[in-house]
Amino acid sequence: xxxVSQSPRYKVAKRGQDVALRCDPISGHVSLFWYQQALGxxxxxxxxxxxxxxxxxxxxxxxxxxxERPEGSVxxxxxxxxxxxxxxxxxxxxSLAASGPQHFGDGTRLSIL
Amino acid sequence: xxxxxxxxxxxxxxxxxxVAFNCTYSNSASQSFFWYxxxxxxxxxxxxxxxxxxxxxxxxxxQLNRASQYISLLIRDSKLSDSATYxxxxxxxxxxxxxxxxxxxxxxxxx
Lengths: 113, 111
What we know:
The complex is a heterodimer. Chain A is mainly β. Chain A has strands at residues 5-7, 10-13, 19-24, 31-37, 44-50, 53-56, 65-68, 75-79, 88-95, 103-104, 108-112. Chain A is globular, with a radius of gyration of 13 Å. In chain B, strand 4 (32-38) and strand 5 (45-50) form a beta hairpin. Chains A and B meet through strand 4 and strand 5 of A and strand 10 of B.
């Protein structure tokens, strides 16, 4: 389809494992955002890319969280040494321009056991 | 205190009812505002932008009061399909749309 695609849809990991979550934005979209949505809460901003440049990572909860977008298209959010509090839905959004409307993917539901 | 606050609900209303949601924001530097809709286990989708002059889209009316830092959404003639969580969103801006979401208000419309 033409929307934002995220994979995997579901991920279960044991505490302490590393995980990698992938986001394929809409083709041509310059801006890419990652959000974390805990159960019963709204999405919380994690980080923002403009092309390959990570311009804002102020929302990343700790240095265990790392995001990259090396070629300005696909992005990966990596979480090292996962903790139970990392269990959440991770949403990716992209927009054509920095101030344009954001289109969200379905999210990756991460469960840490 | 969260930057964007909403009544979590749930609001349980019959079909055809009018329902109003309120939201307050604390960052006076927020530049623009939106209402998003999120169905269970789905991604948030933009419902409408919110302007000081008020704006209407069919059965939906949104209003912004910058002086009170207050945002509202009115839904008239509720439909079963309106059942969802409604997220109030402030754009903190700064060169890009840094969206700050409220926790959402749940609406359940019953026959």
